[in-house]
Automatic annotation (TrEMBL):
GO terms for molecular function: disulfide oxidoreductase activity; protein disulfide isomerase activity. This is Thioredoxin-related transmembrane protein 1. Interacts with ATP2A2. Residues 262-271 have a biased composition (Basic residues). The keyword Transferase does not apply.
Amino acid sequence: MASFMWCCLFKVLILVSYFLICIESKSQLMSLNEDNWDLMLNGEWMVEFYAPWCPACKALQSSWEEFSGWSKDLNIKVGQVDVTASPGLSGRFMVTALPTIFHVLNGEFRQYRGARDKESFISFIEEDKWKSVDAIPGWKSPASFQMSVVSYFFKMSQLLRDLQIATKKAVHTRLMEDYGLPTWGSYLIFAVATIIVGALLGLLFSQVAVCTIDLFFPPKSMSPPSVKQKHKEKEIELEESDDDVVVEDDIVDENTADSSPVRKRKARKAD
């Protein structure tokens, strides 16, 4: 009986230890966003960009969490960025595919392109494989001024998109509830309005572009011909007229030569 109790207690201790280890492993994964992303500029980091709806990101999640449990042994930090919550960071890092992983060492960024499993992540750090990867150039660095401007454009586009969705939803509800329009009628109005607004904006932007190009690259003005150019043209005309006169004279000489009487010499009588 005592041995059975000790066995049960030992199993409970093992389960509790495993549970604590799992909690500790998960706690090593840091969530980064627009407010604290600059933490990765100090020290060595491995950062994953993901989206909750991304199937590949979901498949990678367990391996990434296991890898984060090795962060203390590897003397690094492991983080994640949700691009749906931080669109500015996706623009700052020029994330075009998900998931995207970056290795960061004291503000120097490299994109990880290896296998996506725990062992590959660990060997990438332990064996310093990141040294064979070219760092992102300074002008494209996420910490540069120009990429900060790009991040603001991404955030602005997300705000405009959210505003558009909210406005469309409110107008759609009002058209259906207050005016009794069917669903297809509301969508038809939105489609026509989108086409008209798009055409007007396209016309406006084209005019602005043309004016801007003309401002920086003005068209060449059609200036009247100069006096020297006029004089040269007159000389060319005179030369052409002289050639015509010479040709006519040659024709006249030939005609006169043909029309002149030919003197025939009489044959001498034989002695």
